Amino acid sequence: METKRFKKAVSAEAFVFLIFLAIIFGGIGMKMGGANMMQTMMATAYELLIDTVFNIMAIAVIAGALSGALSEFGVIALLNKAITPLMKPLYNLPGAASVGIMTTYLSDNPAILGLAEDRNFRRYFKKFQLPALTNLGTAFGMGLIVTTFMLGINAPGENLGMAVLIGNIAAIIGSIVSVRIMTTFTKKEYGTESYCIEEENGESADDILNKREIRNGGVGGRLLEALLDGGKNGVEVGMAIIPGVLVICTIVMMLTNGPSADGTYTGAAYEGVALLPWIGEKLEFILKPLFGFTSASAVAVPITALGAAGAAIGLVPEMVSAGTAHANDIAVFTAMCMCWSGYLSTHVGMMSALKVPHLTGKAIISHTIGGLCAGVAANLIFQLVSMVL
């Protein structure tokens, strides 16, 4: 049980916080107009709830149902045995984590939470490993969508196939960096010995790893019950991420996007002050050598990916057609959009769903470094392959 903490009813932090709010929202309000700012904030939150949260919940329900069936009939146990020799040296995670990679690559970041709710999945993880699932799942979230979208861009004379492949490889490198950094934090929190499923009823640690609990009844009944229980876990996950997605993603979107198409503010959803892209342009002298961007405007793609990968990849076709992005940029875009995939808008909710909200800051720091490493790796690998070919 956590110890309660107390402070004086009125302290300096109350005034500091008020000043901070006045600077942030006062600045946005001066740019957009106070009424437009409030309308955009509410409209963006509503659109995120309808278009994003319910979509994530649907993904989590299907992923949870699938994971329930996979665990009930021993597929996760099989993968744990077969892939641990690969996952252990790369990620310091059990082989069962590979199921999370597959589900998030085919869908989105929170799909891994449906797995994490399943007892037969959690049993393979030590306590320090479970929070790192947020970083692992996010690094592969929307992977298939990002990959197919980039491959479908019309870029005559550009070898996009090689660029996208390099981007996927770089995203894997970024995921390893992110998970490894995260587990250095969680080891200090939980140690390295305790499993998520504690030894109980005479069950030893060996039993936890080499036996699995199954439901009563015949095969058909077990399958149906596993699917429904897994889907129910997905609903709970979807509800748990609502506050994080609505609050964090609304702020990120307003700091990332600009005014409407005609340059005015109307109070519509997803308008903003474009602060993050502006910061990116000021840091071009650092970012261009690291990522090899053809144009300073390319910085907007990974910065937008902080909040939403879908919005980020939507910027790419216009850049390619305008000649401000080429195959080398596509490799970096693929790596960073896939590795980051809107982690600022999902990490809070995902860590809360895993019941470790106090580690959210460490997860974000780890994943920020991992995504940057993915982008640098994509640039370096692309340059090396281009020299060889």
From TrEMBL:
Transmembrane among the record's keywords? yes
This protein is called what? Transporter gate domain protein
Q: Which UniProt keywords apply?
A: Membrane, Transmembrane, Transmembrane helix
Domain of life of the native organism:
Bacteria
Q: Where are the transmembrane segments?
A: 12-33, 53-79, 132-153, 159-179, 237-256, 290-315, 327-344, 364-385
Q: Signal peptide span per the entry?
A: none
